[in-house]
């Protein structure tokens, strides 16, 4: 029965070429880039209710998601991986061989609980690969609402792009996973392990587990007040945006000593910048674990070990020089700041705690520090303040964008 269903789907696959899918996605994304687009307005409220983020934060997240999804950016990302977009439609010459990228089959994408629209980008690339896509959506229905707009742009995509609420443990959910040709999943490591066990042996699995991001401020960036304040403003944005819950949020910051601006003075600049940034991106729900962590930090400060700085609204806290044997707390708007002498200390900290890095942010460009971030496993090296604005062609988790959704056929 499944073979017949696949054959029927394959017979319909190539009536829509890759360029048509790309253009439909781009046009739908452009509509969703308008904050006043009615489906977006409704979904924004639902996302805020589900996540606890404030409306300005959700709006920013949706802009970062949809504004970059333009035809040119998608075409460039696909061509970079496959050599050309045309390889999705016909045999093309690649290194003297005629090759074509065929869809791997049906794709299931399990969305995460926190990150806004994290399933949209892989779904877009799977659709460009001409795979039917089912997104296990969250309660806010963002993927479903976007797919409805996509179907308006091209009706043939209505059956190829579908979404429904994800509960976990439901018999239908298990069946969807068992019959999928590839599954992309976001979540905790234990959740990913359970999903992987549910797949049939030949299915591809792309798992995005828990990851953290850190920043580094070199003494060169602290050479004067202007560059130091620029670094502080960038770090403040990466700290408060999404209340520090994203995999590309700033979870720890390393500041070199012996610059013209000392680490404590820089921390004061940073907390002042966080207070300003919090006006644009107000804090969401309070996590009670924050109070417990801050109580311990205040006790250490009273004993003369480290410093604690808070915004006037007390929604953001910096802890300067907490014990380095403790892993970063990964709590909303809590940032440990470590004074160090050399990059080796940063490397030792990350390796000793086994931190899986997604992004490594720098206050100033540095090939040496970029290499450090890459060696530590970071998939994204960015400037402070730009960590959470990756383009659609960048490699989330260090993985390819479209290659997981295709198989190659060669004529040689």
Structural account:
This protein has 412 residues and is of the alpha/beta class. It folds into two domains: 209 residues, Aldehyde Dehydrogenase, Chain A, domain 1 (3-Layer(aba) Sandwich); 172 residues, Aldehyde Dehydrogenase, Chain A, domain 2 (3-Layer(aba) Sandwich), CATH 3.40.309. The protein is built from 15 helices and 15 strands. The strands form three sheets. A seven-stranded mixed sheet has the order 10-11-12-9-8-13-14, sandwiched between helices. Strand 1 and strand 2 form a beta hairpin. Helix 3 crosses helix 4.
CATH topology of the largest domain, anyone? Answer: Aldehyde Dehydrogenase, Chain A, domain 1
Classify the beta-strand content into a percent band: 15-25%
Shape: globular
Given as residue ranges, the uncertain stretches (5+ residues, pLDDT < 50) are: 1-14
Rg estimate, integer Å? 23 Å
> Domains counted in the coordinates: how many?
2
Main-sheet strand order equals 10-11-12-9-8-13-14
What value does the average pLDDT take? 91
Structural class: alpha/beta
Q: Based on DSSP secondary structure assignment, what is the total number of beta strands?
A: 15
Main β-sheet description: 7 strands, mixed
């Amino acid at each position: 029965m499944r073979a017949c269903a696949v054959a029927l789907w394959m017979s319909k696959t190539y009536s829509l070429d890759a360029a048509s899918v790309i253009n439909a996605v781009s046009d739908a994304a452009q509509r969703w880039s308008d904050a006043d687009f009615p489906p977006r307005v409704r979904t924004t409220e639902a996302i805020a209710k589900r996540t606890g983020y404030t409306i300005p934060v959700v709006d920013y997240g949706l802009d970062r998601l949809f504004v970059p999804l333009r035809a040119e950016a998608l075409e460039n990302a696909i061509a970079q991986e496959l050599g050309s977009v045309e390889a999705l439609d016909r045999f093309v010459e690649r290194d003297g061989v005629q090759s074509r990228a065929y869809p791997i089959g049906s794709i299931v994408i399990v969305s995460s609980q926190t990150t806004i629209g994290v399933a949209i980008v892989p779904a877009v690339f799977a659709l460009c690969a001409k795979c039917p896509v089912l997104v296990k959506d969250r309660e806010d229905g963002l993927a479903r609402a976007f797919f409805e707009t996509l179907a308006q742009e091209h009706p043939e995509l209505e059956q190829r792009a579908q979404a429904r609420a994800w509960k976990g443990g439901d018999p239908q959910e298990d069946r969807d996973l068992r019959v999928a040709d590839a599954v992309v999943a976001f979540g905790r490591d234990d959740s990913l392990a359970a999903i992987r066990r549910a797949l049939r042996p030949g299915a591809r699995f792309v798992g995005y587990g828990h990851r953290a991001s850190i920043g580094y401020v070199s003494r060169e960036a602290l050479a004067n007040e202007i560059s130091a304040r620029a670094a502080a403003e960038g770090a403040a944005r990466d700290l408060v945006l999404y209340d520090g819950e994203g995999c590309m949020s700033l979870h720890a910051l390393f500041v070199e000593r012996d610059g013209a601006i000392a680490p404590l003075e820089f921390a004061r600049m940073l907390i002042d910048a966080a207070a300003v940034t919090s006006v644009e991106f107000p804090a969401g729900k309070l996590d009670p674990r924050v109070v417990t962590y801050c109580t311990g930090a205040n006790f250490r400060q009273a004993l003369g070990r480290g410093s604690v700085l808070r915004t006037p609204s007390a929604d953001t806290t910096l802890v300067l020089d907490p014990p380095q044997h403790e892993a970063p707390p990964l709590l909303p708007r809590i940032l440990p700041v470590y004074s160090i002498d050399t990059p080796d200390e940063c490397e030792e900290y990350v390796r000793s705690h086994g931190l899986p890095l997604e992004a490594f942010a720098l206050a100033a460009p540095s090939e040496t520090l970029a290499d450090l971030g890459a060696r530590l496993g970071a998939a994204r090296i960015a400037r402070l303040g730009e960590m959470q604005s990756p383009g659609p062609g960048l490699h989330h988790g260090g993985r390819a964008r479209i290659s997981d959704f295709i198989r190659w056929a060669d004529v040689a």
